[in-house]
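Annotated sample (chain length 201).
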Amino acid sequence: MPGQTDPMSFTAFSADGHAVEWATWDDAHRETFTLTWENEAWTATGHVGREDVQYVMRLSATWHVRQFLLFRDLEEPDLWLALDTRHHWGEMNGAYRPDLHGCVDIELDCTPFTPAIPIRRLGLDRLGVGEAAELPIIEVNVETLSAVPVLVRYERVGESSWRRVTAGDGRVREFELDDHGLVAVEPGRFRRRRPAPGATR
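Output written by the structure step:
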């Protein structure tokens, strides 16, 4: 069961799945998000209205990203990244991405979901307020389909509040997590809406 393999102190997700809905800060666009447990792993799926994209991420029971697909206007994924048995990243056409070596997490700027992945995976909720961790992640641009490694610092600034700072350009994202470790609000960018129909809180 997922609760038995989850090493974090967040509330465990139900094996029946979990669904939430986020809105942009101006309430003009929605993202519907579902998390399902199948074949001893998680599948995270988000439909992002503003950018009109869908992403699918396959995550291990311990929240390691194993596969990532991004769909824009085709039935086949526009971008596909996956880890092989040697933990090397590759693309849909079989090309290896040695530039991504050492990265474990994937993030998209268009969704509030992905910043929570490394926090859950590494158990960063055990950090004290003011403590931080720095790690390389893969940052995906849904417009250009670029996937590049960047160094990111995650700092706990409150009981449930976090700050994410990208090295180099200093971009900052601040957000609050709910009891499950998902973003509840990202001031100025995203806020949680009602649960999606049939959702498990």
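Annotation: Helices lie at 2-5, 116-122.
Annotation: The two ends are 17 Å apart (CA to CA).
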